[in-house]
Write a structure and sequence with these properties.
This protein is mainly alpha-helical and about 280 residues long. It has one domain. Helix content is about 75%, strand content about 5%. The strands form 2 sheets. A two-stranded antiparallel sheet has the order 1-2. The protein has a two-stranded antiparallel ribbon with strand order 3-4. Strand 1 and strand 2 form a beta hairpin. Helix 3 packs antiparallel against helix 8. The protein is rod-shaped. It starts with a helix and ends with a strand.
Length: about 280
């Protein structure tokens, strides 16, 4: 139950971090037009005063109109940004759940291995690792499988297994970094597309000010969307990576503490004798 609650809280935090800036920006953009009309009367080409109600807006300035009014490429870019944000949330939650002490080094495994090593029973310790699979169990199993070859070989096996488990964790974390780095690139591509549309509007001879402003708005919106996805993902990446590094160091130290008695273990056939 506690695991579900922690996962749900992490999901709420992520949705809040990513959704709040978007909602705030949409609200500001939608409120900007009424505020501008309330600022004063408008004038026509002859200098006569015209009320704000008499002026028909050129286009809807809502967020959906920005997304679907940016052309086929713009819509694809926006869906790519949304997909990148969803992928970032998924990988963050995945790493948040998996890179924890309870997952990397279960206390039950530590207790069973400690009890087996106190009795000098290497086979029992190996069976405990096989019964409770985890990164630490894999490292300990590598040590127990080389017990006949001396403690130097055991240390090399432990280091190799620890490097392998570290690489597996870092591969999961790398996907968060990929999502974080991809979002600004997608936003920049949308910005370039918006600027191309701006200059195409200017090249038409007598540019439509409303269309020109809409193109600039689309360019800025894609930039903001990329940053909204990238910044939280980058923050979570470094936070989870630092936590993973601490847990790896702690797991390695605990592993060496558990196998220190193997210095005095001699194995002959199927019998384990502690000197």
């Amino acid at each position: 139950m506690k695991k579900i609650q922690r996962t749900f809280m992490a999901l709420l935090l992520l949705v809040g971090l990513i959704g709040a800036p978007i909602a705030a920006t949409v609200s500001i953009a939608q409120d900007a037009a009424p505020a501008a009309q309330a600022a004063g009367d408008l004038v026509d080409a002859q200098g006569n005063a015209v009320s704000g109600e008499a002026v028909k807006p050129q286009a809807d300035s809502g967020f959906l109109s920005i997304v679907f009014g940016s052309g086929a490429l713009g819509v694809i870019l926006w869906f790519a940004l949304f997909g990148d944000g969803i992928a970032a949330i998924y990988f963050i939650i995945d790493c948040w759940v998996l890179i924890r002490p309870q997952k990397l080094m279960p206390q039950a495994l530590i207790n069973n291995v400690q009890g087996a090593m106190t009795e000098g029973d290497v086979v029992k310790a190996l069976q405990a690792c096989e019964a409770d699979p985890s990164p630490m169990a894999n490292i300990l199993a590598a040590a127990f499988q080389h017990v006949e070859e001396g403690f130097d070989v055991i240390q090399e096996a432990v280091n190799a297994a620890a490097d392998l488990e570290t690489e597996r964790m870092m591969q999961r974390l790398t996907w968060i970094s990929v999502c974080s780095n991809l979002a600004p690139s997608l936003g920049l591509l949308g910005t370039v597309q918006g600027m191309i549309m701006c200059f195409a509007t200017l090249a038409s001879g007598v540019p439509d000010i409303g269309a020109l402003a809409g193109n600039i708005s689309q360019a800025l919106w894609t930039t903001a969307g990329g940053l909204v996805v990238s910044i939280p993902a980058l923050a979570f990446f470094y936070s989870i990576r630092n936590n993973a590094t601490r847990l790896i160091l702690r797991m390695t130290a605990l592993t060496m503490e558990l196998i220190k008695d193997l210095r005095n273990v001699e194995v002959e056939g199927a019998e384990e004798v502690v000197a």
